[in-house]
Design a protein that fits this description.
- By secondary structure, the chain is α+β, with helices and mostly antiparallel strands.
- It folds into two domains: 148 residues, P-loop containing nucleotide triphosphate hydrolases (Rossmann fold, 3-Layer(aba) Sandwich), CATH 3.40.50; 108 residues, Nucleic acid-binding proteins (OB fold (Dihydrolipoamide Acetyltransferase, E2P), Beta Barrel).
- 22% of the residues lie in helices and 35% in strands.
- Strands 6-7-8-3-9-10 form a six-stranded mixed beta sheet, with helices on both faces. A five-stranded antiparallel beta sheet has the order 13-12-11-14-20. The protein has a five-stranded antiparallel beta sheet with strand order 15-19-16-17-18, with no helix packed on it.
- Strand 16 and strand 17 form a beta hairpin.
- Helix 3 packs antiparallel against helix 4.
- The longest helix has 18 residues.
- It is globular and about 75 Å long.
Length: 339
Amino acid sequence: MLTIENLTIQYDQTKVVDNLNLVLGSDEILMLVGPTGCGKTSILRALAGLIPIESGSIQFGSWTATPKKTIAPEKRNLGMVFQDFALFPHLTVEQNINFRISDKQLADHWINILRIDSLRNAKPDRLSGGQKQRVALARTLAHQPKLILLDEPLSNLDAALKDELRWEIRQALKSAGVPAVWVTHDQDEALSVGDTVGVLREGKLEQLDTPKKCYSNPNNPFVARFLGEASFLAGEKNAETNMVTTLLGETPTFENENVTSKVDLLIRPDDLIIKANEHGVGEVIWARYEGSSRLYAVKLDDESVVKARSPHENQIEPGTRVSLIINTHHPLAAFNKSI
């Protein structure tokens, strides 16, 4: 189990990670996400022992690292997968994976699991980006690390390959039973792959929870916006029924004693049904074709703007009056009305 307590990382006088606390289970995949410069990669580098820590501790298995007790990277029994693959260009795939491994059967096992057997004798310059990433992962797993760190491993790949490979990596990690900390800037990747998602802002952990809860019941508007398209509707909450009344009707919200009567209700584009209606509640200001769907921005009669997504067959031109219906029976998140 990985335990991080009160971890602070500082470059000169700049604090890049501020009092981080988290616990990672024995086979859990933690996705760390956040804007550029939020501290994601610094956390990974500190876990690997590549940079010093200002305060706090990192404990994993038999070792504990503190500012006064440095544990060398090679003593931490962890593996790291980089976004640039970091393969030896003069070695074949098999030689890369077997590098400094005494039990060659371990390499063969992961070569077969990750479907790169036909590439054994190829050099890295003959491989595609996805093949290189499979080789890099096989090399890491063949060393039998107790913890794996992944630094944006799919950022150099095209969208279609990313979708396929992220599931292969997840399945390989689960097959090995190894916990992992995976840094990404891709919200879809974080939500679909992780057992847990940690959302960072300016070095602080804004929320650490399941992907579902981070998306549907975020701690604050920042998390809501970062993990997907978010609109906010002004509303009034009934404390007894946990129902919120808005311009688009009434809908249930999560219980939260810290939320008062005047609220901003979180609306995702898929929460709404949009239809052309001259007697509607707003006007389409722009439309975006997405292939299987269309995304619309609608300016409501109270001057607020919300986004709605509909099947691609439902084509509505900008300037058209529309009706909007909240199409969900599950609770929506609400936050105290911003001034």
